[in-house]
Amino acid sequence: MIENSIVYRASKDGTGGPIKFFSFGKARGGEIWDREGKRFIDFTSGWNVTNLGWNHPEISEAIIEQVEKNVQGLLWGSDVIQEEYAKALTASLPKELNACMKATGGTEAIEMSIKVARAYTGRKKILGFNEHYHGQLFASLALGASGAARERLAPLVPEITPIQFPEENLGNEVFEKFLSDLEELLAGEDIAAIVTEPGIVTGWGSTAIAYPGFLKSVRQLTAAYGTLLIIDEVGTGFSRTGKLFAIEHESVIPDMIVLAKGISNGSVAIGTSVGRRDIFEKAFPDAMLISTFGWTPLACAAALKTLQVHQRDKTWDMAEKKGAYIMKTIKKDLGGVVVAVRGKGMEIGVQFKDAETCVRVQRSALSGGLHVVVGSGDNMQLMPPLTISEEQLDEGLHILIEQIQHAP
Ligand SMILES: Cc1ncc(COP(=O)(O)O)c(C=O)c1O
């Protein structure tokens, strides 16, 4: 039975489950209210969705304007606003990424990208990384699902398997071994694509940071062996990590970049894979890249306004500055229960000594007026709206630190 007050908690061993704890009333900017009228500071952005703050007025206006014009697109044609959005989005990405697939969200765009990779390369195998989350359908699950969940849901899509993600604290020798093992796999020239988040894990297994140079090295190796690189920026895109897109941190140009979540700031469902036009065109007849509700004019109007606001306000700078402030403040007041604080921009993980302590702190922070979620097991994931005011940020940090310090 699904109740509307259920929020899901992922966990590394697949034992995560629904937590009944939040009855959503309304939200605005960096604040959220439950149905009893209790106010909370929001440190979730609905899990990296409302990066510009909840219910952004300019985006709502753009949607209302579009309602007056046209709301549904065609499978065999394009509306003006769809073309305008495609132009603006591709202009904000490296010039090689010059074509967009129309999708309704992240999972669909990931699945489409996998189909494109198989159709384009004629190869079957796809590699993902352990504990990366790419969506709910069988191919996207197969990329990163691990352990018990993988077993229970089997059979997943064949020939899609995860490998170990090289984390930042590995040491150079182990990272070199990772690269040589990967090269050995790729040298078989039968891997169609590698799918990865861009050096920071924001879904399952969060919040893990990759070893420095991870993305650049994977790009070099995939290019050398004819394997496509699909970068999932569903969680990191739209300024979350301190850049408009996280690929900018290492100046990596993938063959496809997948975007959703923050793309329309949580207003209308939309997702996309932006990639090389020659790849999409070759793959199109077999991959059947169609989606009835992908890129509706309403969603495009919302996404276009979202992108324009990010660019006008340089929202990525807010993420970089406030993210550094959060890290500094939390690290300063670390109690014995916190093992590590990791992050990039305003995607920050606070790792506790164990999962029980993490959940206990989350629950007590919630009672104290901070809306915050557990990422996986022992990791609390902080993802405040990037536009949150300094006062609200301090209020939220104060609640969190107090609970951390009082945790047994
Ligand atoms: C990194 C990542 N990729 C893909 C997805 C799937 O996106 P959607 O929920 O829009 O299908 C998610 C959703 O949480 C995600 O975090």
Task: Supply database-style keywords.
four-stranded mixed sheet; disordered N terminus; 408 residues; seven-stranded mixed sheet; alpha/beta; globular; Aspartate Aminotransferase, domain 1; binds pyridoxal-5'-phosphate; Aspartate Aminotransferase, domain 2; 13 helices; 2 domains
Walkthrough of the structure:
By secondary structure, this protein is of the alpha/beta class. It folds into 2 domains: 6-56 and 317-406, Aspartate Aminotransferase, domain 1 (Alpha-Beta Complex), CATH 3.90.1150.10; 57-313, Aspartate Aminotransferase, domain 2 (3-Layer(aba) Sandwich), CATH 3.40.640. The chain has helices at 45-48, 57-67, 80-91, 106-121, 138-144, 147-153, 172-187, 214-224, 277-287, 297-313, 315-332, 355-367, 390-406, and strands at residues 6-8, 18-20, 24-28, 31-34, 39-42, 99-103, 125-129, 160-163, 191-196, 228-232, 256-259, 271-275, 338-344, 347-352, 370-371, 373-376, 379-382. It has a 7-stranded mixed sheet, with helices on both faces. The chain has a 4-stranded mixed sheet with strand order 3-4-5-15. A hairpin with a 2-residue loop joins strand 16 and strand 17. Helix 2 runs antiparallel to helix 10 (297-313). The chain is globular and about 55 Å long. The two termini are 34 Å apart. 52% of the residues are buried. The model is unreliable at 1-7 and 10-19 (pLDDT under 50). The structure holds pyridoxal-5'-phosphate. Residues 105-107, 110, 133-135, 197, 202-203, 232, 234-235, 260, 271 line the site of pyridoxal-5'-phosphate (PLP).
